[in-house]
Amino acid sequence: MNKFVLVTGGAGYIGSHTVVALQQKGYTPIIADDFRNANEVVLKGLTQILGATPILHRIDVCDAAALNQLFEQYNFEGVIHFAAYKAVGESVEKPLAYYQNNLVGLINVLSMLEKHDVRNFVFSSSCTVYGEPKGEKEVSESTPKQAPESPYGFTKWMGEQIITDFHKSSAKSKLMNLRYFNPVGAHASALIGEYPIGKPNNLLPFVTQTAIGKHAHLTVFGDDYPTRDGSCIRDYIHVTDLAEAHVAALEFLAKAENGLLEAVNIGTGTGSSVLEIVAAFEKVTGKALPHQIGPRRAGDVVEIYANASKGQELLGWKARLTIEDAIRDAWAWENYLAASAQQ
Ligand code: UFG
After folding, report:
1. Are 231 and 225 a contacting pair, CB within 8 Å?
2. Domain assignments of the chain as residue spans, ordered by start
3. What pLDDT sits at residue 170?
4. Cα–Cα distances in angstroms (integers) from residue 255 to residues 119, 248, 249, 272, 295, in the given order
């Protein structure tokens, strides 16, 4: 019997890798994506990896009627909800678009769970809900949440609040907030990866684009922070590990008692500084990365990394891949994109 899983935003960066991980574990992923922030290149790569075109419905999750039709068509075992805007800087310029898309989409999906009695739900949350950690830089799920710096961050923070209130009202639902740290890398085949639209804001896509010649240099945003080398520290998690965490979450929920809500950090447990990423890139690829030290970026958290023990205890999941693996795979993907563009 088919085990259908709805993957909203399944043609996006983390979504597409999760579709692969689901299929590997015997699920039938059903993608709902309107391609406003996804690219046909990823769909082509996904088709090659899966050996068949994935089942795709080009719908907007804010369109409740279209979403309802999907829930009538399939008997979903669970839903993984990725579809959302995700650029911190853009969210400051377009807060209403962010609140509208990210919160209406979430509310629509939760309403469908209730209406169609689908119980298992995984939400794309973020370590942004911890804000700037006070004192200890390693955060666990019991670390108090703090107001995020951006409207984007607030959509995740409020998303978790909406899910918490939904949980109180719903005795049957089994809900999980996965708090991602910094997703990086690409599928080992280099057929899918992150496809930034416009100039990337995130570090690793900017690094690989610089190395391939799209930018003159990388600017390191600040080297005067109170960290071991003065640059900011993050917990970079390989997207393949992250994708597998979603499948582990779904399997956990499927076996769990009704009426459950959990939050789980998805990180490696180790932080890397921006300058360490630059050095690791140069070591892995053998290419010099032109970079300059620039001013601090407004709103940057100084240092944060995951306490990742709950993921292992609850889900039996832990990161297997290293930052070097992620750099190698992201670089292969950047080269694949460059080669496809020349054809
Ligand atoms: N950085 C640079 N130069 C660049 C880009 C980034 O030095 O050109 C630095 C940043 O200052 C930061 C680190 O690289 O120190 C990582 O920056 P990213 O933009 O890649 O990631 P962030 O940690 O800022 O953002 C991530 C997610 C957001 C989430 C946030 C929560 O991308 O979705 O974590 O802290 F909201």
Report:
1. yes
2. 4-184+237-267
3. 93
4. 11, 11, 10, 35, 49
Mutate to test the pocket of ligand 1, among 155, 203, 236 (most ligand atoms within 8 A of CB): 203
pLDDT band at 196 (very low <50, low <70, confident <90, very high): confident
* pLDDT of 198 higher than 90: no
| Active-site option among 130, 152, 305, 336 | 152
Q: How far apart (Å, rounded) are the C-alpha atoms in residues 305 and 152?
A: 20
DSSP state of 51: T
Q: Whose CA is nearest to atom 1 of ligand 1?
A: 203
| CB contact burial 191-205 (16+ within 10 A = b; e otherwise) | bbbbbbeeebebbbb
Please tell me if the CB atom of residue 156 comes closer than 6 angstroms to any atom of ligand 1: no
Is the pTM value of this prediction over 0.90?
yes
Six token digits for residue 245: 């965490």
DSSP state for residue 63 in the 8-state scheme: -
Residue written as tokens 């690219």?
A: 39
- Catalytic residue check, 74: no
Element (H, E) at 56: strand 55-57
Question: Has residue 218 got a pLDDT over 90?
Answer: yes
Of 221, 225, 291, 301, which is best to mutate to test ligand 1, by the most ligand atoms within 8 angstroms of its C-beta?
221
Q: How many angstroms from the chain centroid is the CA of residue 285?
A: 25
> CA torsion 156→162→165→167, rounded to 10°?
-80
- Residues 59-70 have pLDDT tens digits of 999 999 999 999
The one-letter amino acid at 318: K
**Would strands 260-266 and 76-81 be described as parallel, antiparallel, or unpaired?**
unpaired
Q: What confidence category does residue 251 fall into, taking pLDDT thresholds of 50, 70 and 90?
A: very high
Which residue in this structure is represented by tokens 């499927």? 254
Closest by CA position to 153, among listed 165, 142, 161, 164: 161
CATH topology classification for 4-184+237-267: Rossmann fold (3.40.50)
